[in-house]
């Protein structure tokens, strides 16, 4: 049985009050990025290209002719039929074949943010069209999922039954149960995150496909209204994607993206009246305050005095993580990797690297510094930390191996991923679920299909790692581990020449 720990086990614990941080903080020995291996730079452009290819492996639905992975085919074409709607398309979140709304939306929001902020770097690397395609694969699906008023389809596939079969999506026969939220059964986190994704994507496509962009923005506005009118936490994606942090962060995040996309005072007022002064040391599919705080700090840098206070909050995120900060609170492995919890830990590595990279660029552009007690940090230390985190993933670490499939030295070969670990079979072949675990899951051999570009869950708190498919926490990739990496890798690629 596949073990999957994607849900964050208590994000509330990551909400840190700066006042107590000062008392509690212990200075950790920081390992700067010069400890392991002789290489100090990687081929970031290659890593960027591959990180986007991974998203093609996660596509559900009818694949277009320009798909780059020969081992992937059409799958789940009848999704939605059980509810008499068309829900073909979208993304599988990780190594199984379920389509979960919350992580899928966060994936698209992050990819869109990267595509907006690092547009020129992604374009210079020749990847802008691929990134746009990847975003559109998500937003096309969200347009289908939002076809009804005050209704959002949030999941396809029964996770318990899905997890009882180790089968590639092309051959699955497990039930494609359809889940939705509406006025009677609300789901504020998912509705607001989907609104954020659509608002952010509308900015990406504004000058690329104006009509499409307008459609996305209209849906984003309606979803935000739905999310804030019918409040409630949806637990239908538990235990895999249970929101521990509540929905205030998603509402603030959605309002922030809607304000940036529209400059309409409705969203501005919502932020000023309803936002929570949370100081956090985590940014993830469950907890979005830090992302919103950095975006609002950008508006403050651009001259909006009403958002002045967000800089302190954005700073507190940095201060709680940067090893040199007197307020640092976050566990770092002896080899230098951010370590928040077991299972898909690298999601916190890439999301933090992305925020540090973006904030570093903003500090440089507006000649600003982060203040942590009596210490100031400029753009340089933030980018150095983001680079060190990415370099660890790409090979500069105690195990001297890459954590991205198909990239660098000694990369993972046994990703915990059905499509990659099961050989290509004829479409009509019926698979025995019982034998699937014996034949393919338990086979101690490299996956037959390379899951190019996937960043796996990664090493444990002591930098130890084993390349075994059965180790879900270390070996499972997810879309939201990879997408924050896209922007940072584009930035690092642009610095390399
Ligand atoms: C701003 O958004 C609100 C809510 O969607 C809408 O009623 C209003 O007309 C918008 N204002 C402008 C100036 O577009």
TrEMBL record:
<keyword id="KW-0326">Glycosidase</keyword>
<dbReference type="InterPro" id="IPR018221">
    <property type="entry name" value="Glyco_hydro_9_His_AS"/>
</dbReference>
<dbReference type="InterPro" id="IPR012341">
    <property type="entry name" value="6hp_glycosidase-like_sf"/>
</dbReference>
<keyword id="KW-0119">Carbohydrate metabolism</keyword>
<feature type="domain" description="Glycoside hydrolase family 9">
    <location>
        <begin position="44"/>
        <end position="489"/>
    </location>
</feature>
<dbReference type="Pfam" id="PF00759">
    <property type="entry name" value="Glyco_hydro_9"/>
</dbReference>
<protein>
    <recommendedName>
        <fullName>Endoglucanase</fullName>
        <ecNumber>3.2.1.4</ecNumber>
    </recommendedName>
</protein>
<dbReference type="GO" id="GO:0008810">
    <property type="term" value="F:cellulase activity"/>
</dbReference>
<keyword id="KW-0136">Cellulose degradation</keyword>
<dbReference type="InterPro" id="IPR008928">
    <property type="entry name" value="6-hairpin_glycosidase_sf"/>
</dbReference>
<dbReference type="GO" id="GO:0030245">
    <property type="term" value="P:cellulose catabolic process"/>
</dbReference>
<dbReference type="InterPro" id="IPR001701">
    <property type="entry name" value="Glyco_hydro_9"/>
</dbReference>
<keyword id="KW-0378">Hydrolase</keyword>
<feature type="active site">
    <location>
        <position position="416"/>
    </location>
</feature>
<keyword id="KW-0624">Polysaccharide degradation</keyword>
<comment type="similarity">
    <text>Belongs to the glycosyl hydrolase 9 (cellulase E) family.</text>
</comment>
């Amino acid at each position: 049985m596949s073990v999957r720990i994607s849900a964050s086990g208590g994000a509330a614990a990551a909400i840190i009050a700066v006042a107590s941080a000062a008392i509690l903080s212990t200075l950790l020995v920081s390992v700067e990025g010069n400890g392991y291996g002789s290489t100090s730079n990687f081929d970031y452009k290659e890593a960027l290209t591959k990180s986007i290819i991974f998203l093609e492996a996660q596509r559900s639905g009818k694949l277009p002719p320009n798909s780059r992975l020969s081992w992937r085919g059409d799958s789940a074409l009848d999704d939605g039929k059980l509810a008499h709607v068309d829900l073909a398309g979208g993304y599988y979140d990780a190594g199984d074949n379920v389509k979960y709304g919350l992580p899928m939306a966060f994936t698209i929001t992050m990819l869109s943010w990267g595509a907006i902020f690092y547009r020129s770097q992604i374009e210079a690397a020749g990847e802008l069209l691929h990134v746009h395609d990847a975003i559109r694969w998500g937003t096309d699906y969200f347009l289908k999922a939002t076809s009804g008023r005050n209704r959002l389809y949030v999941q396809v596939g029964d996770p318990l039954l899905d997890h009882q079969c180790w089968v590639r999506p092309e051959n699955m026969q497990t039930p494609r149960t359809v889940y939705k939220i509406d006025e009677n059964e609300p789901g504020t986190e998912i509705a607001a995150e989907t609104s954020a994704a659509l608002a952010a994507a509308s900015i990406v496509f504004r000058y690329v496909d104006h009509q499409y962009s307008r459609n996305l923005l209209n849906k984003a506005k309606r979803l935000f209204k739905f999310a804030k009118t019918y409040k409630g936490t949806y637990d239908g994606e538990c235990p895999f994607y249970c929101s521990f942090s509540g929905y205030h962060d998603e509402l603030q995040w959605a309002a922030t993206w809607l304000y940036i996309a529209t400059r309409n005072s409705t969203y501005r007022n919502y932020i000023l009246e309803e936002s929570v002064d949370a100081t956090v040391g985590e940014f993830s599919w469950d907890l979005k305050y830090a992302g919103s705080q950095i975006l609002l700090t950008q508006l403050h840098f651009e001259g909006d005095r009403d958002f002045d206070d967000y800089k302190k909050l954005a700073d507190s995120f940095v201060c709680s993580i940067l090893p040199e900060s007197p307020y640092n609170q976050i566990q770092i492995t002896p080899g230098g990797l951010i370590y928040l919890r077991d299972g898909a830990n690298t999601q916190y590595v890439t999301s933090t690297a992305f925020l540090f990279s973006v904030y570093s660029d903003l500090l440089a552009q507006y000649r600003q510094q982060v203040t942590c007690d009596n210490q100031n940090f400029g753009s340089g230390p933030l980018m150095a930390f983001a680079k060190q985190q990415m370099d660890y993933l790409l090979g500069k670490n105690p195990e001297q191996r890459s954590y991205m499939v198909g990239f660098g030295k000694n990369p993972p070969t046994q990703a915990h991923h059905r499509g990659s670990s099961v050989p290509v079979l004829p479409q009509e072949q019926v698979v025995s679920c019982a034998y699937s675990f014996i034949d393919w899951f338990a086979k101690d051999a490299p996956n037959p299909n390379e899951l190019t570009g996937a960043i796996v869950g990664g090493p444990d708190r002591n930098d130890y790692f084993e390349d075994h498919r059965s180790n879900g926490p270390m070996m499972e990739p997810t879309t939201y581990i990879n997408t924050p990496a896209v922007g940072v890798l584009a930035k690092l690629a642009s610095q390399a020449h």
